[in-house]
Design brief:
By secondary structure, this protein is α/β, with parallel strands linked by helices. It has a single domain, classed as Aldolase class I (TIM Barrel, Alpha-Beta Barrel). It contains eleven helices and eight strands. The chain has an eight-stranded parallel beta sheet with strand order 7-6-5-4-3-2-1-8, with helices on both faces. β4, α6 and β5 form a beta-alpha-beta unit. α5 runs parallel beside α6, α7 runs parallel beside α8 and α10 runs antiparallel to α11. About 2% of the residues have low confidence.
């Protein structure tokens, strides 16, 4: 595991684990979401991570990464930038070399287990050599979302404590277990079937050697999110939970109001959603 003194993302997540609270990792596709995440963090005095997919690097030739990094570094509260679901070795190395990211998720879950472990270990070392914390996903979560490769015909595989411990040997700092959570939408709350007993076993088996982070929260009601934090989740990724009001507003008002108004009002709606999640996860007032 990377030394705590060298990496802000690791410091934030360790503090959340020790304090028994969580904070959002906000999936960000545009400048409105980045601005909203910073404003929410400062308003609530909560940590936050800005999450970018590799798409952000390709789409803007790194400009969105630079904007996120500048926003994080100038904030009055701890904010870090994370590259989520990096599924290509070349893009991981490019991101690690370019700077701007405090942590990178090395997602080799589309490979079979042994190749997944081997590739992950090599890329973890590459990132650590550059002072970047790392994350991996033992098992395989079903589904997909914008910016994340769908697992397609590959069967979803729930994480076992044994598999989690095998991944720890790669040197990862954060572990994203699959315990019934999935990428994309669940369709209805009753379709959310999380195995908290499994998560508890993973937590106790890995405690002190890796930090748990949560993926797949679309459609989560507050109680389920709080249950995940109770069972040891620290950074909890939010995608639709951060932008559903924004999406609805854009759909209803695009072309009807000035673009600047659309952006400003949309940013406020995203901030409102992020602030709510900070309250739900218990990170409000922690920094």
């Amino acid at each position: 595991m990377l030394g705590l003194e060298t990496n802000k993302a690791l410091q934030m997540i360790k503090a959340a684990e020790e304090g028994g609270y969580g904070f959002p990792g906000v999936v960000s596709y545009n400048i409105e979401t980045i601005v909203a995440a910073v404003r929410a963090a400062e308003a609530k005095r909560s940590p936050v991570q800005i999450l970018l997919f590799p798409w952000a690097i390709d789409y803007s030739d790194g400009l969105l990464v630079k904007a996120a990094a500048a926003a994080a570094h100038s904030a009055s509260v701890p904010i870090t930038v994370h590259l989520d679901h990096a599924q290509d070795e070349d893009i991981i190395k490019k991101a690690a070399d370019a700077g701007g990211f405090d942590s990178i998720m090395i997602d080799m879950s589309h490979f079979e287990k042994e190749e997944n472990l081997s590739k992950t270990a090599k890329l973890v070392q590459y990132c650590h050599d550059r002072g970047i914390a790392t994350e991996a996903e033992p098992g395989r979560m079903e589904g997909g979302e914008d910016g994340v490769q769908d697992t397609g015909n590959l069967e979803g595989l729930l994480t076992t404590p044994e598999e989690a411990n095998r991944f720890i040997t790669t040197g990862i700092d954060f572990l994203a277990p699959a315990f019934g959570n999935l990428h994309g939408h669940y369709g209805a709350v009753e379709n959310i079937k999380l195995d908290f007993d499994r998560l508890d076993r993973i937590r106790h088996s890995t405690k002190g050697r890796v930090h748990l982070v949560l993926h797949g929260t679309n459609d989560f009601p507050d109680g389920i999110m709080q249950g995940c934090v109770k069972y040891g989740m620290t950074r909890c990724n939010v995608n639709d939970l951060a932008i559903y009001k924004y999406n609805r507003y854009i759909a209803e008002n695009a072309g009807k109001v000035p673009l600047t108004t659309l952006m400003e009002d949309g940013t406020k709606l995203i901030q409102e959603c992020i602030e709510h999640q900070m309250d739900v996860m218990g990170g409000t007032g922690k920094v």
